[in-house]
Amino acid sequence: MSGLTFELEPFRNEAQEGFRGVAGPYGDTMAYYVKSVRDHQPNATLRAQLVSEHLPEAHVDGIGMGGQPSPYKATLEVDGITGKLKYNSYGLTRAARALHITYADRTYTYAYTRTLRTDTELRRRGARITLTNGRRIRGTGQVRKVTTHGDTDEVDLAIALVFEAVATDPLDPTAAPLYGLFRSDTNGDG
Fold first, then answer.
1. Which of 41, 70, 119, 145 has its CA 20 to 30 A from that of 184?
2. What is the DSSP string of 3-43?
3. DSSP conformation letters of 142-189
């Protein structure tokens, strides 16, 4: 579905944090992670979840902080099918650090297109979804504007939206050195 545009508002409560809104014809949609109730446990697997009226269920499980998973040692599952995630943690540019996703018979690239936590893009042949910051909501953060281009479908949208609840900082070369310190400190793999 090309040309679909909608906004997701940030939300935060005692248990969860993420984004929610009406995703056009796909109805009420929420991408979130469950906040950690205790201090960070090294190598603990954390989950980001997408729940929607008419989009396939999706989640990302990975190692992270404060309840929010990162792409590091992560897995993706959409509608019961597992996808593979891979990125170059030594890349020096946004393109070199892009997350490569293989799901069913599709391959995607998820990358920052501008500065940290502003513009991201999920792309596969013939389809692209852009996510940009919108207006600021006091106390919770910025609205995310989602726009589809080309031959996008429900699976594309589910993948793009679930990553809104994932700590994708390691994909941006400006934040990667800080994230690398965390990773080497808490994980024996370094």
1. 119
2. T-EEEEEEEE-SSEEEEEEE-GGG-EEEEEEEPPSSSPPTT
3. EEEEEEEEES--HHHHHHHHHGGGS--GGGSTTTHHHHHHHHHHH-TT
190, 114, 128, 135 alpha-carbon torsion, rounded to 10°: 110
CA nearest to 122, candidates 85, 67, 88: 85
Q: What distances in angstroms separate CA 7 from CA 24, 49, 161, one per listed residue? A: 9, 18, 11
Residue 181 burial class via C-beta count within 10 angstroms: exposed 0-12, middle 13-18, buried 19 and up: exposed
Torsion sign over Cα 160, 164, 170, 175:
positive
All residue ranges of the chain with pLDDT < 70 are 1, 37-42, 115-117, 175-190
Residue range 138-148, pLDDT digits in tens: 888 999 999 99
Rounded to whole angstroms, the Cα distance separating 119 from 145 reads 10
d(C-alpha 11, C-alpha 13), whole Å: 7
> Sign (positive/negative) of CA torsion 152, 143, 167, 55?
negative
> Alpha-carbon distance 119 to 185, whole Å?
29
**Segment 24-45, tens digit of pLDDT:** 999 999 999 988 766 566 677 8
Distance, CA of 94 to CA of 96 (rounded, Å) = 5
CB 142 within 8 A of CB 134: yes
